[in-house]
């Protein structure tokens, strides 16, 4: 007759060996050499440069519930778009602001767009409009960018991307008032969102590829 304690010992021993075998197999599968030909990549072109993503569908990033991460320009524009409209090109808010980046009709006119319906139905035009407005605002804020970048104003470290995001929210005038008052002026949009919050939220992104242009148009 087999000793029960001996059987239990054998079972434990084989369980131990099997567990080791599975662990080695699992870890080995995680360290296979990465070969670029084994992975499919898509590429999308924007005005400020080309970026590659691990997806075949560019629209995947618009439909995600979380903005693109990182500090590249693509991350900046997608994070801002998510905050503005959850990345929805056809979004119109209660105040009549349009599209993925929530443009007002008067702002659109300053960058050469006079047909709001065409704008709302053209993702490509909306992307061009966003870059054009950044270029225009960068020109108008060129002195402030030079003077205040890296400084702490109103508890916020000032960066170029933060200033451009704040200008997109409340206009260049609101940004200048905030800076000139050393952060004392609490400039907000019609929904109560402050330019200060945008300076903080969107600070530190890469926007150097945006060329300041006083006459920028969405072409």
Explain the overall architecture.
This protein is mainly alpha-helical and 219 residues long. Helix content is 48%, strand content 6%. It has helices at 4-29, 60-63, 73-85, 105-110, 116-120, 123-140, 142-148, 160-170, 172-180, 195-201, and strands spanning 42-46, 49-53, 152-153, 156-157. A two-stranded antiparallel ribbon has the order 1-2. Strands 3-4 form a two-stranded antiparallel ribbon. Helix 8 (160-170) packs across helix 9 (172-180) and helix 8 packs antiparallel against helix 10 (195-201).
List the helices and strands and how they pair.
Elements: H1 4-29, E1 42-46, E2 49-53, H2 60-63, H3 73-85, H4 105-110, H5 116-120, H6 123-140, H7 142-148, E3 152-153, E4 156-157, H8 160-170, H9 172-180, H10 195-201
Antiparallel strand pairs: 1-2, 3-4
Helix pairs in contact: 6-8, 8-9, 8-10
Question: Notable features of this structure?
Answer:
219 residues; two-stranded antiparallel ribbon; mainly alpha; 6% strand
Determine the number of helices (DSSP H or I, runs of at least 4 residues).
Answer: 10
**Ends apart, CA distance between termini:** 90 Å
Beta percentage is: 5-15%
Write down how many β-strands occur, each being a DSSP E stretch of 2 or more residues. 4
From the spread of the alpha carbons, the general shape counts as: globular
Structural class: mainly alpha
Which series of helices and strands comes N to C? HEEHHHHHHEEHHH
- The radius of gyration is 26 Å
Give a summary of the structure in a few sentences.
The protein is mainly alpha-helical.
């Amino acid at each position: 007759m087999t000793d029960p304690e001996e059987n239990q010992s054998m079972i434990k021993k084989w369980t131990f060996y099997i567990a080791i075998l599975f662990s080695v197999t699992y870890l080995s599968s995680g360290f296979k050499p990465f070969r670029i030909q084994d992975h499919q990549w898509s590429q999308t072109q924007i005005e400020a440069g080309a970026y590659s993503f691990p997806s075949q569908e560019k629209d995947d990033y618009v439909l995600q519930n979380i903005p693109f991460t990182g500090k590249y320009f693509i991350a900046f524009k997608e994070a801002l778009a998510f905050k503005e409209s959850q990345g929805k090109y056809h979004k119109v808010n209660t105040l009549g602001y349009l599209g993925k980046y929530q443009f007002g009709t008067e702002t659109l006119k300053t960058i050469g767009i006079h047909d709001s319906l065409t704008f709302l139905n053209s993702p490509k035009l909306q992307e061009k409009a966003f870059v054009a407005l950044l270029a225009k605002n960068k020109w108008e804020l060129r002195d402030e960018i030079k003077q205040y970048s890296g400084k702490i104003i109103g508890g916020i470290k000032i960066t170029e991307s933060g200033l451009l995001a704040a200008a997109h929210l409340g206009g260049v005038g609101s940004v200048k008032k905030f800076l000139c008052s050393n952060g004392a002026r609490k400039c907000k949009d019609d929904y109560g969102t402050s330019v200060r919050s945008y300076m903080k939220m969107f600070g530190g992104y890469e926007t150097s590829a945006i060329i300041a242009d006083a006459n920028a148009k969405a072409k």
